[in-house]
Amino acid sequence: MQTTFENPRYPFKHHSDLNQGTAVHHPVVIVGAGPTGLAMGLDLAMQGIPSVILDDNNTVSVGSRAICFAKRTLEILNRYRCVSPMLEKGVTWKKGKVFFQQDLVYEFDLLPEKKHKLPAFINLQQYYLEQYLVEFIDTQQQVDLRWLNRVTEVTPGVKGNRLKVETPEGSYVLTCDYMLVADGANSPIRKQLGLESRGQVFKDRFLIADVLMQAEFPTERWFWFDPPFHPNQSALLHRQADDVWRIDLQLGWDADPQREVLEANIRPRLEAMLGEDVDFQLEWASVYTFQCRKLDSFIHDRVIFLGDAAHQVSPFGARGANGAIQSVDNLGWKLASVLKQQGPTTLLKTYDIERQMAADENILNSTRATDFITPKNKISRVFRDATLQLAKDYEFARTLVNSGRLSTPARYLDSPLNTLDDEEAFDGGVAPGSAALDAPIIIGDKTSWLIDILGTRFTLLIAIDKTDISRVGESLPELLQSVGVDLVPIFLFSESTDLEVPKGAMCICDPWGYVAQRYQLEPGTCYLFRPDQVVAGRWREFTSDSLISAVNRALGFDMEVMP
Amino acid sequence: MKLVTQVNFTDGDSFYEALMALHRSLDDSQSLEVNARLILLMANHIGDNQVLKEALEIAGQSVTASHQSQ
């Protein structure tokens, strides 16, 4: 059926582990080469940590599956330096419309604020995203991606894990300090370890169809409740790359999945939606039920779960793959810090703490959307339809209409890694625990973006007044030494300057004032960013002591006293 | 108009979820009863008769319209 994309077949490659009589040791083994596992390998490579990725298959995603990639995901891929092909191929969008029966009831714009490097969303078939990640990984020496390597046995241990792996050339054994499990929603490893992902299955079925057509629809997310072409059910239309359109049709719990997935049955449904004169070709189709569930703990000794294997959501809100990439972003630097012995092993606990918070939020939002789309009983249907009717005329009801609350960056406001603001020091800006906000800047004589220079290492952004530069500059080398980790200081000036910047520091300029406005900067204000671009702490006045203690806190040293 | 029809919820999604949870295990007649109690509680909280009248007016519109069309 699929004509726009042919799945690449990656060859099995012989590797030296197969020749060894004894188990070869690797610091990190990643199981699963989907978006999560591939991104994980890249994240660790950015930190200088080598990894082995094992996948039982030899290709990328079959079918488009995850298609909406949010700004935060793109910012993370931007940090890995591999976002360009995704942006080029993907379809950029930020607006959506919601219809009830014949009427438009609600419109939204996901990025009303201008001047960010990356768009609110791109739509890109999952197979393209994976293919581009694989191609980029081929240029990275520290990621050893092994296709047709299936993990058949895991022996977990408190000091490391032992894995038996099967290949076309026979099996081998390897050991690792950490095994990162990203083998998907049905995670065979999770099952083998006897762990259960808990939550709920929704009693509804949805047809997901990819359709190739030349259509006049705008590049927006269109969602219908009870449309004339598909009465009593919902429908979604969304553009992807290559003139492929994603169509979701709610079918109800009683639908027969084997029957509904047949082209002969899909075609009339699509004709009713698109009009009989529209020429389209069916690329791929699937009938789904949705689940929202997660593991109680993402970490079990030296086994760490990520992506759908750890937390699974319904697709309304695009919180699956986007949540997964944020989990990767969160874990990468923490695991690297532990392996480099820069942070205590308790730092890893905060991956679980922070990403459980995020998973709860994602599950909450996607559950609410699914409940709105699929009312559970008569009265919830009455309330839903009343909300949709009122939404035509009254603004308050529009905000209750829920066809998916689209993925936004997780905010770890209660994280133990945060250093809290001094009382009343800030009234806005970017609070500790929040991901960085992008803004245009100038470096030297070139326009650039703040998001391009943050992350992978700790970064200290200091809004500085010209008159203060020598004072801060003098104390800088000593400070950097006493911090004990790799920390990049960035001096931000409101206008271009020819003053000499202290050695080891970077100098940027904020001539339009976007950084100052978004971060509520005053002369002297500084922000400490973690390697995942999350704000760890901020101060109105720069002192060495507060910085050193904030870095230590962000590395989890204050947690060692925790039970 | 005195009735607020702009967004006034502190957390609309959370309210909606709680409202659905309240009704989840009820049968139709129980739901009607709970709705009636809820309306009376909210009406008393609002108090202002002008506001209540405007709300009653809008709430009744959909039903009036469908009656007329029959």
UniProtKB/TrEMBL annotation, chain A:
Give every FAD-binding domain span. 27-362
InterPro entries registered for this protein in UniProt: FAD-bd, FAD/NAD-bd_sf, RIFMO-like
Q: Where are the transmembrane segments?
A: none
Keywords, sorted A to Z: FAD, Flavoprotein
The organism's superkingdom is given as Bacteria
Q: Which cofactor does it need?
A: FAD
Spell out the Pfam families in the cross-references: FAD_binding_3
Q: What is this protein called?
A: FAD-dependent oxidoreductase
Which organism does this record belong to? Shewanella corallii
Automatic annotation (TrEMBL), chain B:
Q: What is this protein called?
A: DUF2783 domain-containing protein
Native source species:
Shewanella corallii
- Read off the InterPro entries from this record: DUF2783
